[in-house]
């Protein structure tokens, strides 16, 4: 009798992380949803090396000027996905974190981000901020110099590359149903926040058992606002460290970089999104620095920057950046 033993990796470490690559069975096309079956089960503390594909299709890229032999095999493979929508992003996942339960906070630390291909694109979309004024639906292929970390936009114009994942989120509350991948919300999702680079931690409220984390929409570079509805769209490989925080609560996504605390707000109305982001920073200062509401409000006015994250995703985004160097230890 022949016995066949298979090895199942028990833990994802920094040196030996779980590997999650995009295939037609490991991606979600266009949604965050509490009923989506997970493709990977991990524990709090585990590391995952995840790859994402750019938001496009082979035919469009070839038409825009990418040689057919440079189209990623992963992008070709995911075209077999039949269950699509309502959004257009191809998201790797979901990842089920065993310890995560409703009411917890999921920390996703971005340990590293790499560029697996040497091109990206920018395309003027129908949903761009000036789509009622600029009608050219042009797509530009942008060469990425991965050694110099520059994107060649045009002769004499080079864009510094600061890659980040445009979409990172968990399943929204069950009552939200199958949430379109385009508008960011309390679950995160299509944040399009260019501050979420290597070394940053993103904190997300958990709404369902396991959290069901998804990731995609890789960007090599982006301006605040993302006004034509795309950045330098490209594929990415990231190593992520997942940590579940019990006994903490969070209403909206929050982030922390080496230099800043970042609160976020999203709404169809820019004023409402700004109100959420500023209010979240005030609440953070009251909870963690024990400031009064008035002092927290004043500190936001004298030290924080209020930034438009994006104007084009259905829900617009605003984030508040508070520098950590102002907190001097005695």
Characteristic terms for this protein:
single chain, 330 residues, mainly beta, Jelly Rolls, Endonuclease I-creI, nine-stranded mixed β-sheet, six-stranded mixed β-sheet, 21 strands, 13% helix, 34% strand, disordered N terminus
What do these coordinates show?
- It is a single chain.
- This protein has 330 residues and is mainly beta.
- It folds into 2 domains: 18-252, Jelly Rolls (Sandwich); 260-326, Endonuclease I-creI (Roll), CATH 3.10.28.20.
- Helix content is 13%, strand content 34%.
- It is built from 4 helices and 21 strands.
- The chain has helices at 58-64, 73-78, 270-288, 293-303, and strands at 18-20, 27-29, 31-32, 40-42, 47-52, 90-97, 105-114, 119-123, 139-145, 150-154, 157-160, 164-169, 179-180, 188-189, 201-205, 213-219, 236-245, 254-256, 260-267, 305-310, 316-323.
- The strands form 4 sheets. The protein has a 9-stranded mixed β-sheet with strand order 1-5-17-7-15-18-19-21-20. Strands 2, 4, 6, 12, 14 and 16 form a 6-stranded mixed β-sheet that branches. Strands 8-9-10-11 form a 4-stranded antiparallel β-sheet, with no helix packed on it.
- The longest helix is centred in the last third of the chain and has 19 residues, at 270-288.
- The radius of gyration is 20 Å and the shape is globular.
- The model is unreliable at 1-7 (pLDDT under 50).
Radius of gyration: 20 Å
User: In whole angstroms, how far apart are the ends?
Assistant: 71 Å
* CATH class bucket of the largest domain: Mainly Beta
Q: Give the helix level as a range of percent.
A: 10-25%
- The largest beta-sheet arranges its strands as 1-5-17-7-15-18-19-21-20
């Amino acid at each position: 009798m022949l016995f066949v033993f298979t090895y199942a990796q028990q833990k994802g470490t920094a040196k030996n992380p779980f590997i999650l690559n995009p295939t037609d069975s490991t991606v979600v096309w266009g949604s965050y949803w509490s009923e989506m079956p997970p493709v990977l089960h991990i524990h709090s503390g585990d590391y995952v090396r995840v790859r994402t594909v750019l938001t496009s299709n082979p035919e469009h890229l070839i038409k825009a000027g990418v040689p057919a032999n440079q189209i990623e095999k992963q992008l070709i493979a995911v075209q077999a996905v039949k269950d699509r929508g309502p959004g257009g992003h191809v998201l790797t996942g979901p990842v089920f974190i065993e310890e995560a339960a409703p009411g917890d906070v999921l920390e996703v630390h971005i340990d590293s981000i790499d560029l697996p291909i040497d091109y990206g694109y920018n395309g003027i979309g129908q949903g761009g901020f000036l789509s009622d004024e600029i009608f050219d639906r042009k797509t530009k292929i942008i060469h990425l110099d991965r050694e110099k970390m520059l994107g060649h936009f045009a002769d004499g114009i080079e864009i510094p590359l600061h890659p980040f994942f445009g979409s990172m989120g968990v399943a929204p509350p069950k009552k939200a149903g199958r949430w379109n991948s385009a508008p960011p919300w309390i679950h995160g999702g299509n944040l399009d926040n260019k501050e979420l680079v290597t070394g940053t931690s993103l904190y997300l409220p958990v709404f369902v058992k396991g959290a069901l984390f998804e990731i995609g929409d890789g960007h090599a570079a982006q301006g605040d606002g993302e006004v034509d509805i795309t950045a330098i769209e490209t594929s990415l490989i990231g190593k992520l460290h997942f940590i579940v925080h019990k006994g903490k609560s969070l209403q909206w996504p929050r982030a922390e970089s080496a230099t800043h605390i970042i609160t976020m707000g999203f709404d169809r109305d820019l004023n409402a999104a700004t109100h959420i982001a500023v209010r979240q920073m005030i609440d953070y200062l009251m909870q963690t620095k024990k400031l009064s509401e008035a002092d927290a409000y004043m500190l936001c006015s004298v030290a924080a920057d209020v930034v438009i994250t994006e104007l084009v995703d259905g829900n617009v985004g605003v984030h508040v950046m508070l520098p950590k160097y102002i907190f001097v230890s005695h």
